[in-house]
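Good morning C.,

I know you're traveling, so I'll keep this short. The sequence:
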Amino acid sequence: VVEEVRRGWNVDLTPKGVTSAGVLVQTLIDSNVGRYLEFKRVDRSMVWFSDKFIDLPAGRSAVFSSTDLAPMEKRRLMQLMQFCSPENPVPEEYKGKPVQEFLTTHLKMSEKLKSLVMYPILRLNSPDDDCSTETAIDRLRKTAESVGVYGQTDMIYCNYGVSELAQALCRVCAIYRGVYILRRGVARIELGDDGGVEGVQCTAGQNFKCKHVVTSKGRKLNGSLGSSAPGGETRCVVIYKGSKSIFPEKVDEDGDVLELMTIVATIPPGGISPGVPEQTVTVFETSQSTNSTPREYRALHFTTTSGDLKPVVSHFVNLADGSFHAAPNEAVFACFFKLPIEGNGTEVAGCDGYPEGLEDKRVWLCDVPNGEADVDKSVTNARELFAKIMKVETRLRGLDPATLLTSTDDEPLNEVRFNPNVFLPRLRDPEGQQPFDDPEAVMLGVTDPLGRPKEDGEIKEEVEGEEEKEEKEEKEEEEEAPKEEE
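The tokens, ready to paste straight into the viewer:
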């Protein structure tokens, strides 16, 4: 199978979705990094509920239209969604209290209904996760705001996989003369006479000078750097052949079956049987829509932070012969593996305290996305660290290519031509090529609220507007030149 279409595979080791109205999307738009990327809508968001997958009722309309919820369950969910409005603050007696207590005591939700809220919407990993009521309401509000931004779900998925995010940031870093050192680790952090960082030594023995070090939490500052976190993400990738998804079909108002290309699903702890799974399992199904697999193939990604995934996967796939229990598809490949994750602890050897002791040494600890379905928490922390280190506001300015690449006499390089599909995705290139080759593509800041590309007329108006603006600026420069000579 691999030899036949070996160039058609992009299998993520750590698949992550992107919240449509989240911090990462706003960061990509502010910095114009989003112009290097292309996203696809997540067509469907589902949850394992009452021994079957159902559509996640993440919005008011989804709650009302759901046929899998009883009238009383719908009423309880609507009462919870009322707290998304600023006019309905959290009751004082529940502020600072665990969200589990709020759902049980105030909203009187059953255990079954609580699992529908806590894991796919609030994205908790286990019933014992520490999450205050205020934090839970903020997450619920962000989910409600994300639904409908680029599609009917609250997420989008990066075309070619999540590694494209790092590649796009690498390109922008290179424009600002940043350097990436690959296939090397940090063996030692060197401290100067003032107690602050003055450089690092890599595993190849080379020394590099620097003023700041940003690393992940859970590492030790005692010469060698190594993760102090036990365990890691447990993953399973199943590739199966078939143009149709293994998830239940979805029909539109006319009764036609919809073609769903990218799906995210959540299996709550104990959802399949008591103790299976031990913690929340997130399932991504990708296809040729995101250039993850060749045509006629799909990939299932199972991810959890604790426990064995084999009982979960075996509930859907017969690992002996590759057949699916509830679908006519056939699995051609299955792989179980474990990825080490960085701990989020605060113990760092050789420092007087945390975080004061580290910040005095100019060593900064950043969160890493451990087992989460998206990366908003880590991005928020990274923006805060960026503001502290650079002493600027966290809003990143957009890139202006004309001011970045200059010649030796500081004059813009007029001969440089930028690909309009990369830097200016709203414009056509000189040959008239459309910047949108795929009607399902989502380009940040360019598509409409449903993720559809703008019409030809809109693009034409923007092109004409840019040309008029350039002509006006040229005339103003010509008029000012004689005045300056006089």
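Safe travels,
E.
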